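Before the break, one more example. Copy the sequence into your notebook; we will annotate it together after we see the structure.
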Amino acid sequence: MSTDVTAKSPAPAPPGGSGPAADGLLGVMLAGLRRNMRQYGMLIALGLIVVLFAIWTDGDLLLPRNVSNLVLQNSYILILAIGMMLVIIAGHIDLSVGSITAFTGAFAAVLTVQHGVSWPVALVLCLLVGAAAGSIQGYLIAYLGIPSFIVTLAGMLLFRGLTEILLKGQTLGPFPDGLQKLGNGFLPEVGPNTNYHNLTLLLGLVLIAAVVWQEFRDRRRQQEFSLDVLPTRLFLLKLTALVAAVLVVTLLLASYKGTPIVLIVLGVLVVGYGYVMRNAVFGRHIYAIGGNLPAAKLSGVKDKKVTFYVFLNMGVLAALAGLVVAARLNAASPKAGVNFELEAIASSFIGGASMSGGVGTVLGAIIGGLVLGVLNNGMNLLSVGTDWQQVIKGLALLVAVGFDVWNKRKSGS
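Here is what the structure looks like once it is written out:
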């Protein structure tokens, strides 16, 4: 007579991966957040900053007009932050972007205002000038081995001086209407009168559908490769928060003048560069040389070529930012672009970039730029002096980098 001694196996966890019932939804959420703190930490911080300033300003921060101005005022910093994130991931730094921004804006003014060149031709020529500036610096760094800090510091001084020479120390403007719209324009009104900007509502719905599709697609691909994914309930919470955020911003913009043209440009950049860094070979090579250069070389990565193109790309984006800021101000100024390089670097580090390279995302750069933008805008609404604004932004950068160091040490232990 045999005795069945087979132990009962524990009941399988529910599909969401929530574990024992005693843990509950809160336990699942906290565990998921701990595993993804680096990815979601600054996104949560951005949400908290928006809520706090909305309360402190009695809702003025989230007025449709102010949200639109927030986009216009920070668009060129966000453009620079995308390029700077790639530079930092590759293990370098670029101090020249503010001066290149000023120089290309001055070059555009000289072409269009003094010589009557059509604005589309001037735009292309300015982008080519930015590419040339970036390629020269990239060649010195990649092929001659001069440290990026030294090369770009020299570039910062060089292009600032050339800007003064080109403008002869004076402000030059105004720009043609077509170029002005790059910095101040909005999408046109279409369709019936609904008290909202119809085209903005349509774009918002398309963006929501794209976000939902992308999130489910990424989750399915991670599961196919047996990678860790968020628990189902936390994933749905994240998706709900993303959709709600897009919907709120869409309604706020549609309640004013609609979608700024520069926001469309910025959206194309985010999608394009995000795809390159996630899926393209070039993006993986950038991460490789920043994360472990000797290993990348042994793997056949052409590190010099990658570094060269990273700085060439930074020059093009700096030129684009220069056109945007000049179009917004409707004039080129010798003092344009001052401290833009510091804002872009701070945005990248606040958004999750690592000092040692090899870590960071395009979306993280945008989040970091938005954190600084909301801080600037909120403190201006509260009439905080520029002295205290600098102190607060410096502390925000210090906290973000300190969090990165703490998180890496905790992961290593």
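Confidence is low (pLDDT under 50) at residues 1-22. The CA atoms of residues 137 and 151 lie 6 Å apart. Try to locate both features in your own notes.
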